[in-house]
UniProtKB/TrEMBL annotation:
EC identifiers of the protein: 3.1.3.12
Task of the protein: Removes the phosphate from trehalose 6-phosphate to produce free trehalose. Trehalose accumulation in plant may improve abiotic stress tolerance.
Name assigned to this protein: Trehalose 6-phosphate phosphatase
GO biological process: trehalose biosynthetic process
Amino acid sequence: MGLQRSPSNKPNVQPKPIPGTKNEENKVNGYSTTNEPILLNSSYNSWVVEHPSALRSFDRMMKATKGKRIVVFLDYDGTLSPIVNDPDLAFMSEKMRKAVCKVAKKFPTAIISGRCRDKVKDFVKLSNVYYAGSHGMDIMAPPRAVKSSDGKNHNIAPDKKGGEVLFQPAKKFMPAIQKIYRILEEKTKTIQGARVEDNRFCISVHYRQVREEDYGMLEETVKSVVETYQEFHVTEGKKVLEVRPSIEWNKGHALEYLLDTLGFSNSSTDVLPFYIGDDRSDEDAFKVIRSRGHGYPIIVSSIPKDTGALYSLCDPSEVLTFLEKLAGRREKSSSYRTPARLRVKAIENLK
Ligand SMILES: O=P(O)(O)OC[C@H]1O[C@H](O[C@H]2O[C@H](CO)[C@@H](O)[C@H](O)[C@H]2O)[C@H](O)[C@@H](O)[C@@H]1O
């Protein structure tokens, strides 16, 4: 099924240039250089044998989806948009927007991001997808009673704007998060290049533009602040420290929540979730798909890395090609009627 791979799946990978924007190995004094392609080394070639290209495996994957319902989950930064120095400028291309929109017309589609929900929505600008911000701690979903995988019932409050509900398991931490945000802004302002981003239910402290010799100081500052808040902890992403409330909730739980909301129970074998993501926080979602035993966890990476994903895509341009192929897939049984509430209002730039 979805998680199985046949030995014939091994691609004959030739070294190819890495787009500079995604290559974490292209570093000078800790800064990533851009637009300087280097050749993939042999360790990448053996890694990609273990994590075959989702593009090369596409036809085989599609065969396995016959008669099943596909649900698509997408991370934002590094997946739909390339990694850039300024987090406010991480735009996705029109082509990518169009592809996601087309995919979402065919299959239920959700964007699960570390960003705050409103910010990722502003970047994506599509109304036919579900959004889960703050690493899944801020979900916009249809009203429905749900039990999360930790076995607890969670309160869901109707959104003022319509029939949808907000699912915000970390709501009670808001006052503390705002306090921590202000302290971090104050304490890091003397560290050149440091940047604190308010992601609503979590905080990102960026060091992409910090001098390498100041990394330690920044990390110490962040950790010493968070240490005084017992209900919070720090995780790491791509040149970012993420301050999060210590609750049993991550992108994996968000994936389960959304599948449940869409009517697919935990044990349902009729659904094949695709999850495409590039960072550590996406590993939680890969793990959930693997434990379900059905679906496709796909990592976006141009360098070998430890991952629970079974397939790979090199960079956002390959994600685009994959989504275009998925949108172009012809099969009656898979067609998905977007709920009226989510139906695409004519989006100016898609006309
Ligand atoms: O879950 P994601 O949607 O991937 O969000 C994870 C973090 O993404 C953003 O930071 C990353 O992308 C930035 C823009 O390309 C880059 O400058 C930064 O170095 C990366 O870590 C976002 O700004 C963070 O808040 C998210 O936590």
